[in-house]
Design goal:
This protein is an alpha/beta fold. The protein is about 40% helix and about 10% strand.
Length: about 300
């Protein structure tokens, strides 16, 4: 039987105390096996302490789009900031990038500052590093991101290309357009990351199962579709062993107890995403016993990046 190693990553760890607690509750319930830390989150130090206390595998969720930079020299007069002195936002960052307004030297400065702050908070380098709102796969940024990972010896990242995504008719058209853009950027990033010796799990899931679209059956379906898609293809250069009977999957999730303003965020207070009932819906879905039993039945082992 094919062995499946599943990394269930709770993103946005450090965003606020309520998000932190929800992610920890998921970890203690065996529903999340890995977390990704926002070092510019208002509760980042608290999150790092919780990871130490409960021995939670933790990596870096690099943030260039929400809140404030952590690099002191970039907190004023930086191309990464809007007129209010904060990052440009999910779509604003992409617009500024497309207009050639962002200095890649400043992107690199900020990414390195976030790695250093992660090390200060946790006592170690991140075993994996991905991008908040998928900024790490964007044109130009992908090259700088890869350089930083190689310089620090960070081996793993995330490449958000989800098998079967286009057939998910429950995803709103506007959101699907954004996802298609993320997919195109990700496919154009594969060669860059490979050249820098960076690795990632065989399969990524998490766009079709986000928020209100998360259900036990949707997670099962996404995993089954992805495994079927993977086993029908020749292994990619990043994972060249055709004899392997192990497949690795990362499931990206955003569980938590919804943020309550003004507490939370990355410098601007909590956004609608973090305040949404959908964070609690994800938490409640992930801890359902039938999901856990499905993992056991299908020989799916929950793990972290260090286990692959």
């Amino acid at each position: 039987m094919l062995q499946v190693k599943l990394i269930v990553t709770g993103d946005d760890f450090g965003y606020c105390p309520r998000r932190n607690q929800g992610i920890v509750d998921c970890f203690l319930a065996g529903a999340v096996s890995n977390v990704s830390l926002l070092v510019n989150g208002s509760a980042a130090a608290d999150a790092a302490g919780l990871a130490r206390r409960y021995n939670i595998p933790i990596g870096l969720h690099a943030n260039l789009s929400e809140g404030s930079p952590v690099c002191e020299v970039l907190k004023t007069n930086s191309s990464l900031l809007n007129q209010d002195g904060f990052f440009h936002g999910k779509m604003g960052f992409r617009t500024a990038l497309s207009k050639g307004l962002l200095k890649m030297s400043e992107v690199k400065q900020e990414l390195k500052a976030q790695v250093e702050l992660f090390r200060e908070l946790t006592g170690h380098l991140p075993p994996h590093m991905d991008g908040h709102q998928h900024v790490h796969v964007l044109p130009e940024v992908r090259h700088v991101f890869a350089q930083v990972l190689e310089e620090y010896g960070i081996e793993y990242t995330r490449v958000p290309v989800e098998p079967g995504l286009h057939k998910c008719d429950w995803i709103a058209p506007s959101l699907m357009d954004f996802y298609r853009g993320v997919e195109e950027d990700s496919l154009n990033t594969v060669d860059v990351f490979t050249r820098h010796g960076i690795r990632w799990p065989n399969i990524y899931i998490g766009l079709s199962t986000m928020g209100k679209n998360m259900s036990v059956s949707n997670i099962w379906s996404a995993i089954d579709t992805a495994i079927g898609d993977f086993t029908s293809k020749v292994p990619s250069p990043a994972h060249p062993n055709p004899q392997s009977r192990t497949v690795t999957i990362e499931l990206m999730v955003h569980p938590g107890y919804p943020s309550v303003p003004p507490i939370g965020g990355c410098g601007e207070g909590p956004d609608d995403f973090s305040q949404s009932w959908e964070r609690l819906h994800e938490l409640q879905t992930l801890i359902k016993p039938e999901l856990q039993s499905h993992y056991k039945t299908r020989n799916i082992q929950l793990c972290s990046f260090k286990d692959i």
